[in-house]
Task: inverse folding
């Protein structure tokens, strides 16, 4: 006999979760049947044909790895040593004193998200003096839920100036000067997501000074090293400057974009410690955090990244390819502005060229974004952010048409 | 300058990894590692399955493949074929569209996702106080996974009877009867880790009856399907039985051992719900949890498994590879037991062949374990757990003699 309780589900009270604001865009795009549709949602690089781009150095690395016939034994909890060492060197510079003295601990993580999450968990557990994380306004949409889920509280500091579509330097300094001591401040190392607006070096210097005065814990998110200017060292300048100035930072790195290893989930989390002894203690605690989440990280992507970083001619080829990707984006920025002018737009689109990296904060309002999607099948996030990587010489004209139509 | 991390204490290392480290540093040429749970050949070497090598070549040669992000819940063809492996091709639950899955980072990741979901959504919105029961003993990471997911009350249920070296069925059933309603129970689908002792079919039926009556939540951990008996279906009997009994449940699957894909982190959380509407809402909330943990899972391992499971000749070859591994373990069990009997080692050693899967709970006590490590350079867990895969035809005599000497000299 079927009892009544048999018909009930444990999950009757589970609400339908809202679609992810960023990844949901791609899903809506996929469903659209308009042949002219453009996906400017998620930040994944596309070539000028609008196709995913597997780097040549990646293919070469894969072939090298296949020939070695390696086993599939578990990695250590902290990941592949060849990868983590190279990952730290990439960010901090080969000759960095931090690496030489062994006072950093760098663990392999599940790309940038996994790195941020481990970092958030670590701070939540050990940075007990302050619960607040200050994000730039705006920041990557997933930062907030990650830190919140880890038990931290989210606050914001002024960053983007919607009037200029640029950096509100004074506003940022004002807000940062009021942040309570020991709070965590999140800084995007380069190619700020979603705005594409980065501080200039002189501005970084003032920020570093002020952050030191306020005694804040700096959390750098570097997801686009190489992708912003096309130059690895230039893009890591802020990170290295802060360390030089004595900030013991924590740092998240992703190789999703700059090596095109998106789905392989390659990332790193670094804590710059007082000394090597402290680094050992911190490492032991990071392992304790990682083990109950996924035990140890995946090999494939880390092995590819390590091979590229540690093989001189592959490394050289990689630098060239990153430069190429960054250049294509810069070209698309220029083309978009040129096409907007051609359409007859009289608005100031200078910010499209001034901004840097994969994203452009167009300045479009939510209603305009909705029109672009509904009337033109052009997909972007509600905040007006477009992924420049989705722009091609083939679709830039149509894109300019659409943008002009909704803004004239 | 004071460091923000000045107060961070040194954590004690995870035992099983420390054991491997100590083994590595041991200079004794006769040393044997019976610690960490990974398959080894008779030469004591890791084994990349022949079918895996084949599929890797297929992937490398396929230029249409790239490294783009997978969907948040993972590769669809992996998720569905993996669930079929657990529940059976013709599972009525699958046919009724009430089975879903989340691709996760290994079995650990699947347990983690399941735990996080349960803590937020099972039987209300805040399950921090809901008891989670894990077997005594169990895989040591079970405790940490659930505790880290926010469960404050992780308790043992009676399982291993040290005296009779078998299942404490009465204790198990007793704990099921006395558990608060809606408690969550982590059940090992087969090849119990670390004891190698599984309930019989009849015993599973008794467990299911109590769990249904007392409304307890079923969370299977299936890390060794195929590895226990050599047969996928046989090893999935318990999971499938519970499905026929109408349970809504989770099953955390690992493909680390049965595919030998340890470091690619291939896991699947299979969800059996009452109906497709409930399933849909559950999956939507799983996405939220995935997004703040790892965003989307790694593609390589899942691709490999999906191609294998969905290509008939490769699937057949895989099942064969799995049987090869299981058979070698069975041979080592029989061998070890025979040698201990021949040596007339005090005690009974039937449990070695009665137990199943990668591990055996030898019954050696901590002092005896220490002796084995220090005096004989044979590395095993303090619990007395040995990994049968660490045994080979070349070292089995030394191991048998060592056990004999230990049992005779150390009490």
Result:
């Amino acid at each position: 006999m079927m009892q009544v309780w048999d018909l009930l589900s444990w999950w009757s009270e589970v609400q339908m979760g809202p679609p992810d604001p960023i990844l949901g865009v791609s899903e809506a795009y996929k469903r659209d049947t308009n042949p002219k549709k453009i996906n400017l949602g998620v930040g994944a690089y596309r070539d000028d044909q609008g196709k995913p781009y597997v780097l040549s150095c990646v293919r070469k690395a894969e072939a090298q790895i296949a020939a070695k016939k390696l086993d599939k034994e578990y990695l250590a909890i902290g990941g592949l040593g060849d990868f983590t060492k190279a990952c730290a060197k990439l960010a901090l510079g080969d000759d960095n004193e931090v690496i030489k003295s062994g006072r950093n601990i760098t663990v392999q993580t599940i790309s940038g998200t996994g790195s941020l999450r481990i970092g958030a968990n670590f701070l939540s557990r050990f940075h007990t003096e302050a619960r607040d994380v200050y994000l730039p306004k705006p920041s990557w949409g997933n930062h907030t839920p990650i830190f919140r889920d880890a038990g931290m509280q989210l606050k914001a500091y002024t960053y983007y100036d919607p009037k200029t579509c640029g950096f509100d330097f004074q506003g940022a300094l004002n807000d940062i000067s009021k942040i309570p001591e020991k709070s965590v401040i999140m800084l995007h190392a380069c190619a700020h997501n979603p705005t594409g607006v980065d501080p200039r070096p002189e501005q970084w210097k003032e920020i570093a000074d002020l952050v030191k005065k306020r005694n804040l814990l700096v959390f750098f998110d570097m997801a686009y090293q190489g992708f912003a200017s096309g130059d690895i060292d230039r893009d890591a300048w802020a990170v290295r400057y802060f360390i030089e100035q004595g900030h013991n930072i924590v740092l998240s790195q992703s190789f999703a974009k700059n090596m095109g290893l998106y789905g392989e989930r390659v990332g790193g989390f670094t804590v710059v410690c007082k000394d090597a002894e402290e680094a050992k203690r911190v490492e032991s605690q990071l392992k304790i955090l990682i083990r109950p989440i996924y035990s140890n990280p995946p090999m494939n992507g880390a092995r590819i990244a390590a091979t590229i970083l540690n093989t001189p001619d592959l490394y050289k080829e990689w630098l060239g390819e990153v430069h190429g990707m960054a250049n294509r984006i810069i070209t698309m920025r220029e083309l978009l502005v040129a096409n907007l002018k051609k359409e007859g737009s009289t608005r100031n689109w200078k910010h499209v060229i001034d901004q840097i990296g994969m994203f452009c904060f167009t300045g479009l309002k939510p209603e305009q974004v909705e029109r672009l999607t509904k009337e033109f099948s052009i997909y972007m996030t509600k905040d007006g952010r477009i992924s420049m990587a989705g722009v091609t010489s083939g679709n830039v004209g149509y894109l300019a048409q659409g943008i002009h139509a909704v803004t004239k | 300058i004071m460091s923000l991390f000045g107060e961070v204490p040194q954590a004690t290392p995870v035992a099983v990894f420390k054991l491997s480290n100590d083994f590595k540093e041991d200079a004794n040429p006769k040393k044997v590692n019976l610690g960490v749970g990974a398959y080894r050949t008779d030469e004591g070497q890791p084994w990349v399955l022949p079918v895996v090598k084949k599929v890797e070549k297929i992937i490398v040669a396929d230029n249409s493949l790239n490294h783009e992000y997978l969907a948040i819940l993972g590769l669809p063809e992996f998720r569905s074929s993996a669930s079929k492996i657990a529940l059976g091709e013709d599972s009525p639950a699958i046919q009724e569209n009430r089975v879903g899955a989340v691709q996760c980072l290994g079995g650990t990741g699947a347990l983690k996702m399941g735990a996080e979901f349960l803590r937020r959504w099972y039987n209300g919105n805040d399950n921090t106080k809901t008891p989670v029961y894990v077997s005594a003993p169990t895989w040591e990471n079970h405790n940490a996974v659930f505790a880290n997911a926010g469960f404050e009350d992780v308790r043992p249920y009676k399982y291993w009877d040290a005296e009779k070296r078998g299942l404490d069925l009465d204790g198990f059933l007793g704990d099921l009867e006395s558990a608060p309603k809606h408690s969550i129970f982590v059940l090992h689908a087969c090849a119990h880790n670390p004891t190698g002792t599984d309930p019989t079919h009849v015993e599973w039926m008794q467990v299911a009856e109590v769990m249904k009556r007392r409304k307890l939540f079923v969370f299977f951990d299936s890390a060794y399907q195929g590895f226990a008996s050599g047969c996928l279906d046989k090893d999935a009997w318990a999971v499938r039985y519970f499905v026929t009994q109408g349970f809504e449940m989770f099953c955390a699957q690992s493909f680390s051992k049965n595919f030998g894909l340890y470091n690619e982190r291939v896991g699947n959380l299979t969800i059996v719900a009452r109906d497709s509407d409930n399933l849909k809402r559950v999956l939507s909330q799983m996405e939220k949890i995935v997004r703040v943990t790892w965003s989307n899972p790694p593609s390589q391992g899942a691709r490999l498994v999906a191609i294998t499971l969905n290509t008939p000749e490769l699937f057949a070859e895989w099942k064969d590879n799995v049987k090869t591994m299981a058979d070698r373990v069975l041979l080592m069990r029989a061998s070890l037991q025979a040698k201990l009997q021949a040596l007339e080692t005090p005690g009974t050693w039937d449990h070695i062949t009665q137990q199943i899967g990668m591990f055996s709970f030898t019954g050696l006590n901590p002092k005896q374990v220490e002796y084995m490590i220090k005096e004989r350079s044979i590395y095993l867990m303090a619990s007395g757990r040995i990994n049968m895969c660490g045994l080979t035809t070349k070292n089995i005599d030394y191991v048998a003699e060592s056990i004999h000497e230990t049992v005779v000299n150390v009490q």
Q: What stands out?
A: Chain B touches chain A through 80 residues (CB under 8 Å).
